[in-house]
Design brief:
elongated; alpha/beta; 8 helices; 10 strands
């Protein structure tokens, strides 16, 4: 029977791939990959020979209908992103929604997601939290920050290294310089690090030491 598998991939360390994920990717009829070049390295490492095709934010609106038809015809398709769990700040939601609407079975495997280890190792309350993903780049950014300044739950953001200092500066401005912040960088990789402190302290750290790599920011809620 046809099925869409949502398959998490490692966020850095290839050993974080699960046995089940490897089995699903080997047995699927095809793999949808955010970047076939990036995913090609992973598939080669695990000797997975299943054919791939591109499925990313620039083409997913155009390909969903055709993919649904393929699934209806009996294909089993696995969806992966460059790193982590698809649909978490990555392509995947549109296809998943279309499958649910069309009665096609969707099976999401457990696996790597960057914000979970960043939240847990931040030392900030994690019984209740809000995942914000990437902040708006321009339009709506100020409005969003003003709203989040009143949030009492721990807040999680994704950020790129070249925007981190700007974002930390905005946290100082809108949340206050004393708001607790934890920045996790290059999770599961060789140069993984987590810097904790107030918004002002963490901003000073990265102003003196420009960051590299993938970044997750965890911010304490308003007290």
């Amino acid at each position: 029977m046809s099925k869409l598998y949502i398959v998490p991939t490692p966020i850095g360390n290839l050993e974080d791939m699960t046995f089940r994920a490897i089995s699903v990717l080997k047995s699927a009829d095809s793999i949808l990959a955010e970047d076939t070049r990036t995913s090609g390295k992973l598939l080669k490492h695990y000797e997975i020979k299943t054919p791939m095709q591109s499925h990313h934010m620039h083409n997913e609106h155009k390909t969903v209908e055709r993919l649904v038809e393929r699934l209806k015809s009996g294909e089993t398709i696995a969806l992966i992103s460059d790193a982590g769990t698809p649909a978490i700040s990555d392509p995947g939601f549109l296809l998943t929604r279309a499958c649910v609407e069309n009665g096609i079975e969707v099976d999401c495997l457990p696996g790597a997601t960057a914000f979970v280890p960043a939240l847990v190792n931040s030392g900030l309350p994690n019984n209740k939290f809000v995942f914000e993903g990437f902040l708006p780049v321009k339009k709506g950014r100020q409005t969003r920050l003003k709203l989040l300044a009143e949030e009492t739950r721990t807040i999680i953001f994704y950020e790129s290294p070249h925007k981190l200092i700007k974002t930390l500066g905005h946290f100082c401005e809108y949340f206050g310089e004393d708001r607790p912040v934890s920045v996790s960088r290059e999770l599961t990789k060789m140069f993984e690090e987590t810097i904790r402190g107030t918004a002002k302290e963490v901003l000073a750290h990265y102003t003196n030491k420009p960051p590299k790599g993938e970044i997750v920011i965890v911010v304490g809620g308003k007290k």
